[in-house]
Amino acid sequence: MDRWAGKVAIITGASSGIGAAIAKTLVNHGVNVVGLARRLDRLQELATTLGKNKFYPVQCDIQKEEEILSAFKRTEELGGADILVNNAGIFGRSLIIESPTSDYRRIIDTNLIAPAICAREFTKSIKKRNVPGHIININSIAGLYAEAITMPISMYSPSKYGLRALGTELRHEFIKTKLKIKVTNISPGVVNTEMIQEFVNDDPNISSNWPMLKDQDIADAAIYALGTPEGAEILEVTVMAQSASIATTDR
C-alpha cells in the first residue's frame, strides 16, 4: 500500500457502512479520501474523526450526473483521483412484475449507470496525468448467484450482474488503450450495515440470525486488492461469512 500514500481516492456512498469503513482504512494508509454521499452531516462527522485535510466530504446524489461531475471537479482540485471505489448501492424490495418503471430506473441509475459515469470521469483524470489507477466495484453475491436468492429484491440482482460486466468491459478497454488501471470486483455476502438492518426489520419473513460479515471485512478485501504489486491484478473477490452458505438468503 506504500505506493498509494499521499494519493487521492474517491468513494461513493462514503457516509456509512462499507464506504465509511474503506474511507477510514485508506486514510490510515496515508491516502487522502474524497467521500461522496447524500447525507452531508454524516460525511462531516467522518471528516471530524479522520481529519479535514485527510477526508473531504462532498454532498452528492449519484443519480444526478451533474452532481457526479461536480464531485470529480472538486477532486481535480486535489490533484485528481488515483483510486475509485464504486460503493453506493440501493436495494429493491418489490416484485419486478408489480413495480413501476421509476423503481427500475432508480436502482439501475444508482447501481450501474452512476458507476459507469464515475469510471469514465476517473479514466479521464488518469489519462490526463498518465498515472496508474485502480477501480474497485463493490458488488454482491446477488450479482453472482441470483438463483440462490429467492426473496424479491427487484432490479438489484440485474444491476449487480451488470456492474460485474461493466468491470470486465472496462478492463478490456484499458488493455486496448494501454491505460494502467486495474479493476477489481468485490462480491460480499450479507454485510451488517444500515441497509441490511432496515431490510431485515421491514420484512418479518427474513431471518435476523443470518451469519453476517462486518463492513471492515470488505474494507480489508479492498486493501488486499490495492496492495497487489505492479503487473498483478485481482479481478474477482468473493467474501462470505465463514459459517454462511450461498443459500443463506433463501426463505
Question: Which terms summarize this structure?
Answer:
7 strands; single chain; alpha/beta; 251 residues; 43% helix
Brief overview, please?
With 251 residues, this protein is an alpha/beta fold. The protein has helices at 17-28, 40-50, 65-76, 101-129, 156-177, 194-202, 215-226; strands spanning 8-12, 32-37, 55-59, 83-86, 133-138, 181-188, 236-239.
Shape: globular
User: In whole angstroms, how far apart are the ends?
Assistant: 41 Å
Radius of gyration: 17 Å
Low-confidence stretches: none
Q: Largest sheet, order of strands side by side?
A: 3-2-1-4-5-6-7
Question: What is the H-and-E element order?
Answer: EHEHEHEHEHEHHE
Average predicted confidence as pLDDT: 92
Q: Kindly state the number of beta strands.
A: 7
- Percent strand equals 15-25%
Number of helices: 7
Class from helix and strand fractions = alpha/beta
Q: Biggest sheet, open or closed, and with what strands and sense? A: 7 strands, parallel
The proportion of residues forming helix, as a percent range, comes to 40-55%
